[in-house]
Amino acid sequence: MNNGKLVRKVHRFLPKKFAYKVAVIEEVNDIKSMRLDKLMGSLRTFEMDLEDEDISSRKRDNRRRTTPLHRCVTVEKMIGASHKCQSLNHLALLVAGLLLLLPTRTISVIDKDSSSIISRFQEYLRINTAQPNPSYYEAADFINSQAKSLSLDYQVLEFAKGKPLLLLKWAGKNPALPSILLNSHTDVVPAEHHKWNHPPFEAHLDPSSGHIYARGSQDMKCVGLQYLEAIRKLQASGYRPLRTVYLSFVPDEEIGGHDGVEKFADSDIFKNMNVGIVLDEGLASPTENYRVFYGERSPWWLVIKATGAPGHGAKLYDNTAMENLLKSIESIRRFRASQFDLIKSGLKAEGEVTSVNMVFLKAGTPSPTGFVMNLQPSEAQAGFDIRVPPTADAASLERRIVEEWAPVSRNMTFEFKQRASLYDKFGKPLITASDSSNPWWGLLEKAIKDANGKLGTPEIFPAATDSRYFRELGLPAIGFSPMANTPILLHDHNEFLNKDEYLRGIGIYESIIKAYASYAEPTKDEASREEL
């Protein structure tokens, strides 16, 4: 039997709702001698699409796909459900035909598709968007080209000159419903090139390990492209979203986001988007469980200044500027140690404590060769990066600063270079609910599980992201980057992401985006019944 006859026979016996296109291989060696059970035993991992709502086993096998078809069930499940087809012979013929076809032509299609996906990721990574001089317009051109290939609406916004913000739109069937916003930033932190094994903007793919080395591979160009690749796959499947999906590629996150998301979130453009949920960046996970974040620590950048009478370097006297500052530093050190002990003992996670780290010291009288060594300065300063969780008692911390760290009695003053709020505009803590009260959280958990992912315990992000600007508006925002079994290397030398983990993350986002974009809020009557 030649290929054409085989395919025609498969389609003739196949019910219309299963009549998918089948690729034809060039040769089939004596089909009559090939036993179906042997084929199934060796090729059981191959899967095909099955959209029959009547089949008793309707659970989807959402593992990373081995075929271009999706929402899959295994061949084994199809045999188990054969009573729904015309006969076992008909279904067996279908299975035999597909098993003969899949191992050759289909695999090459998969490899080619994956290669294209990785190539696009590498192209994005090679655009040097490192602060302080990011190539924003080059990145914008690349993102716009991807938007065009997906027929997405897009616009370039500039809330600050030279800092384009890309806004893409996948229109939903019901634009009246609150929309989905998938946020990512285009800038990255600088890299010390000489400390990398591969140039940080070469996007080198190690053939033995599969690691892609590049600045931004984890933070967070991976996520931005995964959004787009997931939409590409959803479109290829014929899926149309119920809700409108927006994608924002924003500037300046690495330097505070003041000319990026802060202005974007405060704009009329954003208000008119009617956003219901925001997805933003998370962190890599060294374990098999993905990390997910429902809040983040707010940055308080504190500068303490001590003053005192200048004097000869050989003289001993009280309340010098340096002595007063050292007392404050010691008090801060003790507080830092108490917080660190909570982490070391396992009582709290990193994001649940207040961290304090000294980032600069400034004192002394400069000279052409360094500093004047026989003069005690009249002024000394120290800077501290404080990260405050949304669960902290802000008033208590403020009292500690005033009374212990910078008391007036020791000729101390202080100022905040930055002091982010712990509360939204409604006076509530900047936390997104991570329980059944938040339907978006439940949808996320189920979508990840359906895609064969594992989710860890919800966390507070230890640093700051653009999510805070959305939470300040009272919007739910979830931090999530699908990187399991991956060391945390953001801002580090030799930052990398494995290509297989990147590809797997696309499938995870495909599941999440579909779940979110398909969500129809229950009516009041349905909500009342659920409460009962």
Question: Overview of this structure, please?
Answer:
The model is unreliable at 1-86 and 102-108 (pLDDT under 50). This protein has helices spanning 3-13, 36-43, 75-80, 88-125, 136-149, 221-236, 261-265, 268-273, 321-344, 394-405, 439-450, 467-471, 499-517, 524-531; strands at 47-49, 72-74, 153-158, 164-170, 179-185, 204-205, 211-213, 245-250, 275-280, 289-290, 292-296, 298-307, 311-312, 355-363, 366-367, 370-371, 375-376, 379-388, 412-419, 454-455, 459-461, 477-480, 496-498. Strands 3-4-8-5-9-22-11-21 form an eight-stranded mixed β-sheet. It has a four-stranded antiparallel β-sheet with strand order 14-18-12-19, covered by helices on one side. It has a three-stranded antiparallel β-sheet with strand order 6-7-23. The protein has 532 residues and is α+β, with helices and mostly antiparallel strands. The chain is globular, with a radius of gyration of 29 Å. It folds into three domains: 3-116, no CATH class; 126-295 and 429-524, Aminopeptidase; 299-388 and 392-419, 2-Layer Sandwich (Alpha-Beta Plaits), CATH 3.30.70.
CATH architectural category of the largest domain: 3-Layer(aba) Sandwich
Distance between the ends: 62 Å
The spatial strand order of the largest sheet comes to: 3-4-8-5-9-22-11-21
Percent strand = 15-25%
Largest sheet: 8 strands, mixed
Q: Which parts are unreliable, with pLDDT below 50 for 5 consecutive residues or more?
A: 1-86, 102-108
CATH superfamily annotation of the largest domain: Zn peptidases
Task: Please state the average pLDDT score.
Answer: 85
Number of helices: 14
* CATH topology group of the largest domain: Aminopeptidase
Quantity of strands, as a count: 23
Based on CA atoms alone, the radius of gyration comes out at 29 Å
In which range does the helix fraction lie? 25-40%
